[in-house]
Description:
By secondary structure, the chain is an alpha/beta fold.
Amino acid sequence: xxxxxxxxxxxxxxxxxxxxxxxxxxxxxxxxxxxxxxxxxxxxxxxxxxxxxxxxxxxxxxxxxxxxxxxxxxxxxxxxxxxxxxxxxxxxxxxxxxxxxxxxxxxxxxxxxxxxxxxxxxxxxxxxxxxxxxxxxxxxxxxxxxxxxxxxxxxxxxxxxxxxxxxxxxxxxxxxxxxxxxxxxxxxxxxxxxxxxxxxxxxxxxxxxxxxxxxxxxxxxxxxxxxxxxxxxxxxxxxxxxxxxxxxxxxxxxxxxxxxxxxxxxxxxxxxxxxxxxxxxxxxxxxxxxxxxxxxxxxxxxxxxxxxxxxxxxxxxxxxxxxxxxxxxxxxxxxxxxxxxxxxxxxxxxxxxxxxxxxxxxxxxxxxxxxxxxxxxxxxxxxxxx
Length: 386
């Protein structure tokens, strides 16, 4: 494992971190994966209050194997759930209970989208609350995860003496949200930058167009698409730690190999990324990461599932997309969950970290995935479901 300096604290953080949003439901597999991560040198674990079961799972496994002091735990204050200053302690104390610890190494303000949001929390006394928690050692480092535009990122970055920040960043669009400009701005302040969605919710690992996979394979047959995605990030010295939402031991082992051997990319390798990006952007119509922040839909639409099937119908083949739509979205329960159920209430868009035009995109998905013959077939199929 390679490590990079947290210049604020002096901690050495593994360049590979474990993003804990997408844990497997198989507790035994998750336990093996977490232990494999620690054995492989991973020391940064990122979870959050709103990731279902994540904090409890991580805390239970670390406590069981007495590994709490071997790692840095990062978790987040759910700003969207806070109704007032009393909620700061309510959520924090619950986190300590779930994680079976009495302190948090890296505490983030979760999903800041702009400076006005931060100013609201300043008005509630968040700065004083954080100062007291740092004074008592309950919180060691304070940061924020960001999901807004580049201009707002700079404002938030300058609004407080942050110890670190977390941004979405990958090779498919380096100017999205905080982007490259945000990365450089934070690095200029010597603030560690943690990267989330390095593989766009797995799309850059298992969902690339076949032509893109072929390009990567020709350039280096022993390197997986996931490894290409991670190496692009590690090639930038301003990146401190890259979070990967692994949920199997095999994925962990692949990423550990990449983290062990990552080095500078050649001009030839960088040229391959440019070709892959062109293919990816042509094939992927909706850049959904599958984070599920938009869920549940009041009308039962499986929004991430619809978008995954829609994208697959272009990136891989129409047949593959429809198979995915039938098996994972539309025909697995008596209650329909396809895109035509959308009534355009807009609730999903208000929660989407990517700021996607979800209502418009669902109309596009409905037109491609749910023509009349498909709707008739689904209606018949549901009659035979238990």
